[in-house]
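Hi V.,

Quick status before I head out on leave. The structure for the redesign project is tokenized and pasted below; the design run finished overnight.
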């Protein structure tokens, strides 16, 4: 299956790397996810002030992945990185129930941005290993994902530290990127 996506992706995108933004509130696990995807291991991280950008190769496909800091003071600058983005990975700390409403507000605000209109969304309900973590269904409800219209999206339970759910999410995102690009190239998108 991976070889099929690799060939389709290459034919649709050429040598261009897909641009993916990793967004979410501070302490959600964005940087851990970035380096888990890139290096396959957990690295020691500190709060991201600004951004980290890495090229991640997955199933022979290269993605340019931007991990943006999630502190309140940094979030207004996220929009500077929106142009030319094909996908968003929105990371939610499933154990931080006190801030799930803020995570919802930020996520829906992102989805309303014109520059991200065509971007698919992968939501990672992270930190599933922690006590009291909301499962994917509860995060779906808390984020009101049922309100999302005219956009490909998926949610996965993840534990970045253990690497659980990340690669399933990437498989889904890759197939959605190919599907959306194929629709656009043959004119099936109706807005």
């Amino acid at each position: 299956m991976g070889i099929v996506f690799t060939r389709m992706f290459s034919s649709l995108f050429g040598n261009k790397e897909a641009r993916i933004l990793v967004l979410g509130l501070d302490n959600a696990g964005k940087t851990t996810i970035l380096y888990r995807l890139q290096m396959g291991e957990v690295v020691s991280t500190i709060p991201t002030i600004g951004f980290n950008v890495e090229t991640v190769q997955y199933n022979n496909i290269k993605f340019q992945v931007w991990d943006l800091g999630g502190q309140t003071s940094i979030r207004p600058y996220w929009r500077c990185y929106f142009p030319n983005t094909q996908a968003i990975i929105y990371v939610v700390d499933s154990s931080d129930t006190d801030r799930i409403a803020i995570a919802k507000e930020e996520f829906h605000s992102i989805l309303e941005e014109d520059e991200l209109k065509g971007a698919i969304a992968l939501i990672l309900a992270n930190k599933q290993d922690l006590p009291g973590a909301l499962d994917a269904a509860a995060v779906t409800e808390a984020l009101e994902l049922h309100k999302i219209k005219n956009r490909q999206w998926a949610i996965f339970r993840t534990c970045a530290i253990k690497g659980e759910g990340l690669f399933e999410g990437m498989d889904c995102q890759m197939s959605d990127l190919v599907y959306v690009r194929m629709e656009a190239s043959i004119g099936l998108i109706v807005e």
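Above is the designed sequence. Confidence is low (pLDDT under 50) at residues 1-13, 181-191.

G. will cover questions while I'm gone.

Best,
W.
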